[in-house]
Amino acid sequence: MAENVWIVGIHMTKFGKHPELDTLDLGAQAARGALADAGLRMRDVGVLAAGNLMKAAAGFGQQLQKQIGQTGIPVFNVANACATGATALRVAIMAIRAGETDTGLAVGVEKLSGAGLLAGGSRVAAGDTWAPQGRFGAVAALDGRVGTETMPGVFAQIGMEYDHKYGGADFELFARISEKNHAHSTLNPLASYQKRFTLEQIMGDVMIAYPNTRPMCSANCDGGAAAVVVSESKLRTLSLEQQRRAVKISASVLTSDPWQEACQVLPDVNTLTRRAAEQAYEQAGVGPDDLDLVELHDCFATAELVHYDNLKLCPPGGAVDLFKSGATWRDGSMPVNVSGGLESKGHPVSATGIANIWEVATHLRGEAGDRQIAGARVGLAHVIGLGNACGVHILEKAAA
Amino acid sequence: MSARVPLVDYLVLAGDPHLTAHECTACGARFFDRRNACAACEGEQFRQVDVPTDGELRAFTIVSFAAPGVPVPFVAGVVDCGGTSVRANVVNTPADPEHVRVGMKLRLTTVPVGVDADGVEAVGFGFEPAS
Predict the structure, then answer these.
(1) Does the CB of A262 have a partner CB in chain B at under 8 Å?
(2) Potential cystine with B11: which of A55, A154, A215, B6 (Cβ 3.0-4.6 Å)?
(3) Which CATH number do you get for residue A91?
């Protein structure tokens, strides 16, 4: 049985517009913040896992080392869609569990302010005559002619599919989920937007892809997050204060989507999340009822609903009832996205999968200030990257 | 009659227009794209099968904001055609939630895409309300 792995340092930059900072500045801020929080230096770190999508081919990890410390350690440059940050963390954890090193650093950074739609509009170059191209033998662009490739549209369908299967989900219900997360964000000074919206404002805002209006969509923004993880034996060599603030990684799971009918027609974000959750609960030896808070991947309001069910926060088909009970508000029995979620905190894609772990860890340490969930001991962080990848981590407060 | 080509190679225009799929001979999984092997069972043999032209709308969205050059609003959805899921637009009905609902019955129809320099017309598909 491999050793337990602990978070000893973790940091999240302010999410939002950072025109004066480039990817490396944000990465350095996140990494150095996590190292300072851990009381460690780059020379203590045995592996670096670096997540970034927009500069994935540029050797982001090595570029980052050149700003914060070139110690010759192995670098894994990681790209896994919106699950990139969680994947980077998972790589560092695996290296420690494999016994290759006792200390790892995982970083995720993205600069996305003003990026607009991140998919869609794939157009075959207009030629003089029709010529079949690609794996569908298409003579013209398919986005807009055969469904939609845009993320708001894809996740809108995923929410509507849940309604078709179980009923009870409509435009107003999805808007109310967004209302909750924006209300939560007012307590989070690191969120891109800290503005409460009324239900009427949310439903009356610009429609992007029904039923998702603009405030129901995650915001493109800039941001970084990083975590320093150590083996349990390394942890025991650190100061009592470092041990007291350490957060145990009780489960670390990454899955991809197994084949299901229709999964190549509309991305199936459900099956791989359910599998990841089942494996994580098994690894951690805890169940959904033990969770004090959950940060889940609300890239769109329609996505949050289906993940209540996928993460087993409710019985199958019970997501609408769970939300309507008020349980997922911060004063409810199962607080979800007390950070404000991606809809208000923002979604700098590669940073997201570490930032949600920072949120949970900060509550477990009792350091979440005005938005602290009192007495939080166990929390879960979930991300989805379309394609698909799902990361689920379960964290526990140090026993001492 | 001038020449016509389908928008995608899994749309058959001759006779009654319909879609075809590559069906794995080992496990029955169906795919619309060019295949290397079966994603469900790793099988390597496929046969062409016709997909029913009647279906039920399983999921949809009304896209109001899209990439430049894509006309909006339009209805994008997933249509369950006798157990085979198809990605398609819902056409010939107003693009609003009063006229489009999950569970509605639909049927395949063809949609003009355009005419090229040789006068060849490209024809796409969509699903329209069945009643």
Answers:
(1) yes
(2) B6
(3) 3.40.47.10
Return the structure tokens found at A101: 């090193």
Q: Residue B45 gets which letter from DSSP? A: -
pLDDT on residue A2: 77
Measure A268 CA to nearest chain B CA, in Å.
12
Residue of A136, A148, A257, A305 for testing the chain B interface, max B β-carbons within 10 Å: A148
**B7·A152 Cβ contact <8 A:** no
- Mean pLDDT lowest among A111-115, A155-159, A218-222, A251-255: A111-115
Query: What pLDDT does A123 receive?
Result: 52
Q: How far is A272 from chain B (nearest CA, A)?
A: 15
Q: What pLDDT does A370 receive? A: 97
Q: Are residues A98 and A26 in the same domain?
A: yes
Q: Which residues contact B50 (CB under 8 A, 6 or more apart)?
A: B12, B18, B19, B20
With an 8 Å Cβ cutoff, are B34 and A206 in contact? Answer: no
What confidence tens digit (pLDDT) does each residue in B45-69 have?
999 999 999 999 999 999 999 999 8
- Mind telling me how many Å the CA of A157 is from chain B's nearest CA? 5
Q: What is the DSSP letter of B28?
A: -
Do B97 and A129 lie within an 8 Å CB cutoff? Answer: no
Chain B positions touching A212 (Cβ under 8 A) are 61
Q: Does A265 touch chain B (CB under 8 A)?
A: yes
Q: Considering its fold, how many domains does chain B have in total?
A: 1
Does A72 lie at the interface with B, CB-CB under 8 angstroms? no
Phi and psi of B21, rounded to 5°?
A: -130, 155
- A140 vs B89: CB contact, 8 Å cut-off? no
Q: What is the pLDDT of residue A55?
A: 86
* Whether residue A359 sits in one domain with residue A238: no
Q: What domain count does chain A have? A: 2
User: Residue B49 sits in which domain range?
Assistant: 4-129
Residue A284 falls inside a structural domain: yes
Assigned token pair, A29: 């801020």
Q: How far apart are CA A355 and CA A348, in angstroms?
A: 10
Range of the domain at A93: 5-115+221-249
pLDDT in tens, A322-370: 999 999 999 999 999 999 999 999 999 999 999 999 999 999 999 999 9
**Cα–Cα distance for residue pair A154/A77, rounded to 1 Å:** 28
Q: Which residues in chain B have their CB less than 8 angstroms from residue A118's CB?
A: none
Q: Considering only CA atoms, which of A179, A175, A123 is closest in space to residue A149? A: A123
Yes or no: say if A184 and A344 are a contact pair by the CB < 8 Å rule. yes
Q: Is the pLDDT of residue A284 over 60?
A: yes
